[in-house]
Amino acid sequence: MSKRIVVLGGDATGMSAASTALRHADDGEFEVVVLERGHYTSYSACGIPYWISGHVADRDQLIARTPDEHRAAGIDVRMRAEATAIDLDKRSVSVRGVDDGDTYELGFDELVIATGAVPTVPPLEGSDAQGIFGVQSLEQGEEIVEDLLRGARSDGKGGDGDRRKAVVVGAGYIGVEMAEAMVVRGIDTTVIEHAPEPFTQVDPDMGALIRVAMEGEGMTVVTGVAVDGFDVGEDGRVKAVRAGDAVYPADIVIMGLGVKPNARLAADAGLEIGPSGGIVTDVRMRAAPGVWAGGDCAEVHHRLSGKGVHIALGTHANKHGRIIGTNIAGGYGAFPGVIGTAISKVCDLEIGRTGLTEREADAAGFGYVTATVESTTTAGYWPEAENMTVKVLAEQRTGRLLGAQIVGRTGSGKRIDVFATAIWNAMTVEEMTFMDLSYAPPFSPVWDAVLIAARKAAKEVQGEIPASPV
Amino acid sequence: MSKRIVVLGGDATGMSAASTALRHADDGEFEVVVLERGHYTSYSACGIPYWISGHVADRDQLIARTPDEHRAAGIDVRMRAEATAIDLDKRSVSVRGVDDGDTYELGFDELVIATGAVPTVPPLEGSDAQGIFGVQSLEQGEEIVEDLLRGARSDGKGGDGDRRKAVVVGAGYIGVEMAEAMVVRGIDTTVIEHAPEPFTQVDPDMGALIRVAMEGEGMTVVTGVAVDGFDVGEDGRVKAVRAGDAVYPADIVIMGLGVKPNARLAADAGLEIGPSGGIVTDVRMRAAPGVWAGGDCAEVHHRLSGKGVHIALGTHANKHGRIIGTNIAGGYGAFPGVIGTAISKVCDLEIGRTGLTEREADAAGFGYVTATVESTTTAGYWPEAENMTVKVLAEQRTGRLLGAQIVGRTGSGKRIDVFATAIWNAMTVEEMTFMDLSYAPPFSPVWDAVLIAARKAAKEVQGEIPASPV
């Protein structure tokens, strides 16, 4: 008799776990049921801002595999079906039809919890007004596009229609990407961020560079103030955002305050939830015997701080799914943890980060030195040379690379992967100084920016060692 | 009394050694004399093809620092002066003025040999004809530019003037870069390569991709034949290149057969020369007490094969110079060796390599598996997604990453540095599989090409392990 795998959530982790398990299984070994409360499976949430901007032309391009495609591969995908409870003793989940309200129990041999994340929504006055949108799901992306189209000018751009002014709340990944999308659509855009500089995923000195670039794109960047609430018109639509002592008129508001793990079901079932709010698993992504969790609802191990962290990112979600599927099928897969690598862009400004920022290093208890260098993406004399700023954190005394941040123009951001690989291997900045990285004038200066930054950091490490070490 | 540092060669290694030593020294500690036989100091030889193509507008952009700039920093730069002998016992070099023939002896306390490389020139009939050029020095670059201008049409392009057809001999780095330069200038270009596929710095299966791209740029690529000689006109100018059974008409010929260490002086002085033809040094780049060698004239340690190799590359030359200068000044600098990382491009095709190719791995005695994957530089749905092919070599049984090669369009090549950093740290392909590399749709698919290639290679490693290991 085949074992039943029940998967909660039909996006990256869930579908990847389902596909991987089936691919490694004998015929008839598994029956796989996926419950998805939304309308879509396996789509790129990370791509939504670029569909909204129009850079990606068609919504369907964001969908890697439709429910029917998964069904053709032998997966019983049940759309608009959500789990309302998990019973670990009875080995079953309670299922409810989102549209019809029908309920039933579904037994499982193996359970995959891939319920994703939910947006952080502060309880603000007027936050349920029309015209205020999150960007978490493809459905929400659709709502934004439809709303913009309703308010657009005849040329398809916002501006002269109803949607002249956008306010984006939060200047993190979603915030800056959505701000870009609004600007690309020709909409006056104001970004409001609580922190002193935008993009708190990097240090404020690097965030200041991002601010300058955002302002250069015509965005208004308001920092250091929290949103107090929304003014709502008689038609029930948002009219303005109140923040600090000011009122920012808004025809549309995008909430980009980040997400938190959607772990309520797991918590109610008695599974362990970590300090990050995510479901705790072992290295094989197992939350309990026969119960697996991964993706945005799970907590993962940070290799530098040693703590559990929550990082909602499609690449991790896909890795988790593959690992879970491999393990369910009887193979061995272990997630080695994260080091906080990420990349984003605002128009042609690229932002990369890996390891720990100063704030994160402080929180983890590290003593560290920093070094910041300016360089170019190519030889300085190359006509297409672009500027980039690289900041490096290295541990005091040991010189171990703790973090790196890059803010620069086209072609700079992906260098963060070199730092990531160095951190992964616990390299010191001294060891990095003479690494054999590729060089040719169209691709880097004779000393690549990575090497220059490492060298400067190594000097700082040297400098802080007392002449007569204790 | 100050110690005298004599430097043979005023390019990357020599001037970097001189500058670094002075920067770390007390006032008056060192007198630094640099002997340079050419007309220029501190220039980017790697940039010459791009100046010839016109992409870099001005020759002076390739010059990082002129003799006078170095003199202002306190270095006694003697141009058009070449050393003709080194006497290690007397601690002196014999110097001859290239233009005036004057000779003198110059004593040294510390000697830096940075005599660079000389082009490989096979003894072919007619090879001293006019119109046949190497691309090793800025002077040679000037000769090519002047020759092309003499033969150019009124619009500045080659074509209707005398320089309608170019033949490039050799399809390595210089060959493909010069072929690009000729094509950019509107000249019909044929590249003749002895090997079965162009660009033997990568494996033939990857070279075949380069061939297709070169042909797509309108170049004629002739492989598997050696050049037999040159037909010379009555005016003493080259008319054609004979190779195999064919004759290739040529108004200009570029020799791109690579370079070999210019180590004759060192050999004559009794310094050890390695199997690669380069000067042997210790890890501090010391060839003998008080005698240092680096850059294109030196042999370096390959971290994978364990052998001495000769790799002429500006980035190594600069590193050597800094290390030598640091050591002369009483500091500590050690060169950690190379892993064969390099990058190049032909028009918008990028080529990266690191570690060992199949041929090199065979020569070193490694058993290995290979994996080749096709991927994209960005999410597949990103409008600017570009194709890339990644090939990985991993050691049998251990799975240690031995090499990687990338051939792809804009934005693909620099990923080679991630592989380089992984090789530097002796990572296995299995360990690389779940590395935390950066992801966002404009920058990579959800599984970066590096990870996909590592995963496929890890499967190959698994596959070749017997089910019941001995």
Question: Could you characterize the architecture of this molecule?
Answer:
Chain A has 470 residues and is α/β, with parallel strands linked by helices. Chain A has 3 domains: 3-118 and 260-328, FAD/NAD(P)-binding domain (3-Layer(bba) Sandwich); 132-257, FAD/NAD(P)-binding domain; 342-463, FAD/NAD(P)-binding domain. In chain A, 25% of the residues lie in helices and 28% in strands. Chain A is built from 12 helices and 26 strands. Chain A has helices at residues 12-24, 48-52, 67-72, 138-150, 173-184, 204-216, 264-268, 314-328, 358-364, 416-424, 429-432, 449-463, and strands spanning 3-8, 30-36, 76-79, 81-87, 92-97, 103-107, 110-113, 117-119, 132-133, 165-169, 188-193, 220-223, 227-232, 238-243, 246-249, 252-255, 259-261, 286-288, 291-293, 300-301, 308-309, 342-346, 349-355, 368-376, 387-395, 401-409. In chain A, the strands form 7 sheets. In chain A, strands 3-2-1-7-19-18 form a 6-stranded mixed beta sheet. In chain A, strands 9-16-10-11-12 form a 5-stranded parallel beta sheet, with helices on one face. Chain A has a 5-stranded antiparallel beta sheet with strand order 22-23-26-25-24, sandwiched between helices. In chain A, strand 5 and strand 6 form a beta hairpin. The radius of gyration of chain A is 24 Å and the shape is globular. The model of chain A has no long low-confidence stretch (mean pLDDT 94). At the A-B interface, helix 8, strand 22, strand 23 and helix 10 of A face helix 8, strand 22, strand 23 and helix 10 of B. Chains A, B: Residues 344-446 form the Pyridine nucleotide-disulphide oxidoreductase dimerisation domain. Chains A, B: It comes from Actinomycetospora lemnae. Chains A, B: Its cofactor is FAD. Chains A, B: Keywords: FAD, Flavoprotein, Oxidoreductase, Redox-active center. Chains A, B: This is FAD-dependent oxidoreductase.
